TrEMBL record:
Protein name as it appears in the record: BMC domain-containing protein
Domain BMC intervals: 5-89
Signal sequence bounds: none
Source organism superkingdom: Bacteria
Subcellular location field: Bacterial microcompartment
Length: 90
């Protein structure tokens, strides 16, 4: 995972995550590598790709998700440490 950046979006509701994921994948050259149910309706999507693509994709995802639900957080990690892969379910 250290070769690619990691993008994360956390939203309230599965519908918002599906909308966000669709927008991200259409907007930029990135891959969705997983998602996780947090609890209390929060779900998080994980994406990989180069930094520029992730920033564009995550921005598009946040815009799309905010139309159908609530965006809790977005973040792009440019060079995640290899051991981070064990922390998130990828």
């Amino acid at each position: 995972m250290a070769q690619q950046a990691l993008g994360i979006i956390e939203v309230k509701g599965l519908v918002a995550l599906v909308e966000a994921s669709d927008a991200a994948l259409k907007a930029a050259d990135l891959q969705m590598v997983g998602w996780s149910k947090i609890g209390s309706g929060l779900v998080t999507g994980f994406f990989t790709g180069d930094v520029a693509s992730l920033k564009a994709g995550i921005d598009a995802a946040a815009d799309a998700a905010s139309q159908v639900g609530q965006v809790s957080a977005v973040h792009v990690i440019p060079r995640p440490h290899d051991e981070l892969e064990g922390l998130v379910e990828l």
